[in-house]
Amino acid sequence: MTPHDVRTTVTGPTAGLAPGYTQANLIAVPVDLAYDMLLFAQRNPKPCPVLDVTDPGSPHTVLAPGADLRTAVPRYRVWRYGELTAEPADATTHWRDDLVAFLIGCSFTFEQALAEAGVPLRHGPNVPMYVTNRQCRPAGGLHGPLVVSLRMVPAAMVDTAVRVSGLMPAVHGAPVHVGDPSALGITDLAVPDFGDPPVAEAGDVPVFWACGVTPQAVLMASKPPFAITHAPGHMFVTDVPDSEYRVG
Amino acid sequence: MTPHDVRTTVTGPTAGLAPGYTQANLIAVPVDLAYDMLLFAQRNPKPCPVLDVTDPGSPHTVLAPGADLRTAVPRYRVWRYGELTAEPADATTHWRDDLVAFLIGCSFTFEQALAEAGVPLRHGPNVPMYVTNRQCRPAGGLHGPLVVSLRMVPAAMVDTAVRVSGLMPAVHGAPVHVGDPSALGITDLAVPDFGDPPVAEAGDVPVFWACGVTPQAVLMASKPPFAITHAPGHMFVTDVPDSEYRVG
Question: Where residue B171 sits, what CATH number does that domain have?
C-alpha cells in the first residue's frame, strides 16, 4: 500500500500500513487558539513534535501535497467544549474556514526501524494508549495530562528499542518510561484508554512512548469550544519517508 | 566560568565559555507577532530550533530560572522596522510588557562535543556567519534568508563533525552544506556578514551549519515594527547541560 492508497481507502487503524512512511496525528483548532496550541507543542516536544502547521482554512500540508486533510484520515473526532460529539470518516462538513491544522509525529513511524533492528511488534491493528498522571507544561488556556503508547518489548531488546526510537525525536523519540506502569499512574495495563489491549510474551517489559493523542486529553481537560482530531491510531499517512526524521 | 558567571560578567562573544552548557539565541517580539515567529521557527527547524518561549512580558525562562533575559545577554540589538537602532549591553530600558522572548538553540552548544570527538575548533572569540541565497519557508508576515555559521574542519574529520552535531538537532544538528561556499551564494569567505573572519589550515573544508542569527536576517527582510535580539555570537548561556539536547 502506498501512502495515497492508505489515505483514500483505509477506514481502520494505520499501524504497519505504508511501511517506511511518516505517520502523523491531527489536531485542528480555530485560529484564535492556534498560538496556544503551537506553544503547547513547543513546550511539550516529546508528546507533540510538530511536523507541519497549515495556514488558516487550508486543508493542505507540505507533508503530502496532493492530500486533503478533511478526508485523508481514516477516522476523525469532532470536539466541542471537551466533549467528543462525532466520529466521522469524512470531516468535510465539520471543517471550518478558521481552522489551523497541526500535524504531529506518530510513533507508528519508527516501527519499521524497530522491526529492522529485530524488535518484535506484538500489537494488533492498534497500539494500547493510556492517560498518565504526568501533567504537561501548560500554554495559555491549554493544559492536560501526558498520554503514552505502550509496546511490550523482550527485556534483551529494550536497549535496542530505546536507541532506535531515540534517533527519531520528531516522531516521539526515546521512551518516556520503561517498566512499572504504576509509576505513570496506570493501574491496569489490560484496559487501555485508547486502542487495543496489549499482547505480551513471557519476559516482555512494558515500554512507554509519549503519544500524539496527548492533545486529545488536553481538549478533554481544557474544554475549548471546537476542535477536530484524528481518532487514536487512525493516522494521517504522509508522503515523507521515515528516514527524513532519523538523525545520526 | 559557570553559566551564571557568563551571564553576569561577560560583555563579548560567548563561544567556548561555560563549556558543557547550552547556549541560546534570543529574539523577542511583541505578542501580536509571536504566532508568526513561532510558526516561522516550526517551519524552519534547522536555523530556528526553539528551546523555550516566555509568557508575554516575562523576562524569565525555564532554561535558567534565576536569570533575567533583559540583562543576561552580553550584548543586545534593538530593531525598528528592520533597522538596527541600538546595541546596548543592558536591554532593560528597551524591554516592553508585550514582548515574547524566543530562545533558539545555538551551535556553540555542540562545540564541546566536537572538541571531545577530536574536531579542532579553529575560530577565535566568534564564528564567521554569512547570509545565504537560500530563502526560509515564510510564516505570516515573516520571511527572509537562511544565515549559516562556518567552521573550517580538516577533511578527514568532516564525517565526525557531521555525525556528532547531527545528534544534537535542537542546537542546529548536522550541517546544511559542506564544501563550495558559492553553492550558498557566499562570494568571499574572508568577509563574513557577522562575527570574525575564518581561520583555516591546509586541507580544511568549509562546513556550514544553520544559524540562529537567521531571525535577525528575517527582521531585516520583513521589517516588523519592533524586536530585541542578542548580538551575533553574544549568546544567552543557559543552565541546561548540553547532554540534555543530545539524542542517540
Answer: 3.30.2040.10
